[in-house]
Amino acid sequence: MEFRVEWMMGGLEELKNASSFSNVRFMEVMQASSYAPILEPIIRSGWAQPNEATLKEFSGACWYFGRRLQKTLRIPVGLIGSYYGGSALKTWVDREGISNCLKQIAKHRPRIYDDAVLWNGMVKPLTQLDIKGVLWYQGEADSYEDHNSFLCLMPAMIDSWRKHFRQPSMPFGIVQLACPPEQKHPGWSSVRWHQTADIGVVPNDILRNVFMAVALDLCDPKSPYGSIHPRYKIEIGERLLLGALSLAYHIPTPFQGPSPAYSSRVDNKVIVTFRDGPIVLRGNSASAFEVCCGYSNASRSDSSWNDCSQWDAVSVSNPTAMALTVDVSKCEGRSVRFVRYAWKASPCTYLKCLIYGANTSLPTGPFVIPVES
Predict the structure, then answer these.
(1) Backbone angles phi and psi of 368, in degrees to 5
(2) C-alpha–C-alpha distance, residues 269 and 228, integer Å
(3) What confidence score (pLDDT) does residue 113 get?
(4) Cα distance between residue 32 and residue 5, in whole Å
(5) CA-to-CA distance for 291 and 308, rounded, in angstroms?
(6) pLDDT below 50 — which residues of the chain?
(7) CB proximity list for 151: less than 8 A, separation 6 or greater
(8) How far is CA 105 from CA 75, 255, 270, 281, in A?
(9) How many CB atoms lie within 10 A of CB 251?
(10) Checking CA distances to 210, which of 245, 267, 333, 339 falls within 20 to 30 Å?
(11) Helix, strand, or coil here: 32?
């Protein structure tokens, strides 16, 4: 979230026109870690009107979201930037939230209870404010260090912030991870999945009133700031806006790309049917889907895709408005246990993943689903 307006694609144009958004104000919190909660925020830059000089170091994604929100709703908008590049999720969760996760994650990082330092220094001081919602763009550091803990810590953080801000249903917008510097990076795909509470889409029963900007199609390998920092913040801000309009402002707005409703096997084909369609195929289908094969006498009651030791790339065909067909002949008489989509760390080039909403141009996020015989 710290990525500046001046660095983003279209950033110079945003700065040039910034002063025309006189009903947007923004401020930044100083980056500060603390082992004890701080009561008053340490301000890096106070409330300011946007112009070419004041705006350039503010968050690009946050700014674009805010100015589009103001233009759409024609209301005053205030933006508070509180971010720390390269930080891990555990630093943003209060001690109670970390304690609630400790039993599940202690085997991964026994000293996780030492954290909460950015919560103490950069969020707790803001909790006396009345805010409308939160935009959250983080997770890269966790993919390298402790991606297994993310599954518990993400909902724990959201619950904690809602409690401290006195809003049990405070809207939370999340940016799903874009692309890492290297292709073979299993932690990256795990964090993407954990960002949805291992369900694949938000909101869901665990992450209620949460919306998401899927960003796996915003890879930027030529970014001068490193491919881990894509410059495509306009697309991210626009996708976040759709979710905020729907969940925070209750304006009926499609904000989700297609997601799988169910799958079924017929001979050597698996038909995947989608919700939130119709769908359209854009990119290369050669490696978008993978299959995990098994044996017909394997127990399905305790079957988990995490047990799959081998995934084979498979082709797709026969797309319709709401479904497509996956060729699973590679299973060679074995059962088809699971099918997954877009599980590579960098699954496609810019705006060229395989599946999008035909009417929304929103991408389908990564998913893994069991196959019904």
Answers:
(1) -135, 130
(2) 36
(3) 46
(4) 22
(5) 10
(6) 110-113, 299, 301-302
(7) 104, 194, 197, 198
(8) 43, 32, 36, 39
(9) 12
(10) 339
(11) coil
- CA dihedral in degrees (46, 47, 49, 53; nearest 10)? 20
Q: Which amino acid is at 316?
A: V
Name the amino acid, one letter, at 156.
A
Residue 355 phi/psi, 5-degree rounding, is: -115, 130
pTM over the 0.90 mark? yes
Cα–Cα separations (whole angstroms), residue 49 to 9, 27, 336? 22, 9, 57
Residue 132's nearest CA partner among 34, 235, 240, 60 is 240
The interaxial angle of helices 150-164 and 186-194, nearest 10 deg, is 40
Cα→Cα distances 232→8, 22, 191, 236, 299, Å: 6, 24, 20, 7, 45
The structure tokens 């060729």 sit at 327
At 301 the pLDDT is 47
CA-nearest of 169, 186, 178, 164 to 93 is 164
